[in-house]
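Severity: low
Component: inverse-folding endpoint
Summary: output formatting inconsistent between runs
Steps to reproduce: submit the following structure tokens with default settings.
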């Protein structure tokens, strides 16, 4: 079967498109004929180093994806369109047993620890395939599995965002931040976004952002205080890390919540701990989401409350171009791979 896979690490040259053996379905699994996947920051990480992740090369790329069930234990599932929950969990550890599979100590992710979704066929446990609402195409459905699910857990499960609260999303345009804007608006929150790109801020405004902030890090807090009449925001969604933390902590109201899911520019930020305890701030770390959260997200999509944003589409054989596009940071929405 055709697949996009990694042959090593370091640069786009290690990304190949060619033949890989078709996976054999085992009992308890579904075999999918894949239709779409999207590229994620983690694909760039896997391509560039993959350090700290146990894997065997060559490895098929792709963490999220959607397709049609070709083989299953139950014939009723055959022909069904499904999107993939990217984590395969053990079901036996302390965390799985207490109903928190997203914390599974042995979770293995598609495209990271095992062959991924950018292939004509993929085998996963049956429960990893969730039915796609009729109003989504395959690319949109694929887009949900990483970025939208991550933003969902950050806003709804961790920060417990409420209607009418204010949210600040740092660095609008990236997959998670854009998903956070859409989900927060669907909740009925007031959403502020930051970017240094006037074009991205304009697009964010079209998507419903209530205020846009184009400012260097040390000017963000004064601007947020002006927008909130000196109060600060209730919730902050942050996946950049590094020096923006100093500004970020100054943007929060007393008791405010900051949720972080990435550290693209630095993982050792200066954080004023006096501010954290005196103002009783809450700091949450988050990554991915649970299958239950994924099902709830799909329901919101079925109701039309969230429409996943696809910015560009590439055929599988142009995976290198898709990765370069992602790396450029110029996109506003997901970059999809048609398979
Ligand atoms: Zn487990």
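Observed output (run 2 of 3):
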């Amino acid at each position: 079967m055709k697949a996009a896979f990694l042959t090593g690490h370091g640069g786009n040259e290690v990304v190949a498109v060619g033949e890989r053996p078709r996976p054999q379905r085992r009992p308890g699994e579904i075999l999918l004929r894949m239709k779409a996947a999207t590229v994620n920051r983690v694909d760039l990480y896997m391509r560039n180093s993959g350090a700290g992740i146990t894997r065997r090369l060559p490895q098929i790329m792709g963490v999220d994806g959607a397709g049609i069930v070709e083989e299953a234990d139950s014939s009723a599932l055959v022909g069904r369109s499904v999107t993939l929950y990217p984590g395969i969990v053990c079901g036996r550890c302390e965390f799985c047993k207490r109903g928190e599979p997203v914390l599974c100590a042995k979770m293995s992710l598609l495209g990271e620890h095992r062959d991924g979704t950018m292939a004509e066929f993929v085998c996963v446990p049956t429960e990893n395939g969730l039915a796609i609402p009729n109003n989504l195409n395959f690319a949109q459905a694929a887009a949900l599995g990483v970025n939208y699910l991550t933003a969902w857990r950050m806003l709804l499960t961790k920060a417990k965002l409420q209607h009418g609260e204010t949210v600040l999303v740092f660095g609008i345009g990236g997959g998670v931040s854009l998903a956070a804007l859409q989900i927060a608006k669907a909740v009925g929150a007031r959403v502020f976004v930051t970017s240094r790109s006037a074009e991205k801020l304009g697009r964010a405004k079209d998507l419903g952002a209530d205020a846009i902030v184009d400012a260097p890090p040390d000017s963000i807090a004064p601007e947020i205080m002006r927008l909130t009449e000196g109060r600060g925001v209730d919730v902050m969604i942050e996946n950049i890390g590094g020096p923006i933390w100093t500004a970020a902590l100054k943007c929060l109201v007393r008791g405010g919540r900051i949720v972080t899911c990435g550290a693209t520019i630095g993982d050792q930020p200066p954080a004023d701990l006096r501010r954290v305890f005196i103002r009783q701030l809450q700091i949450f770390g988050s990554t991915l989401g649970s299958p239950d959260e994924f099902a709830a997200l799909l329901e919101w999509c079925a109701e039309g409350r969230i429409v996943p944003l696809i910015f560009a589409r590439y055929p599988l054989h142009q995976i290198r171009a898709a990765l370069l596009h992602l790396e450029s940071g110029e996109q506003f929405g997901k970059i999809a791979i048609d398979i």
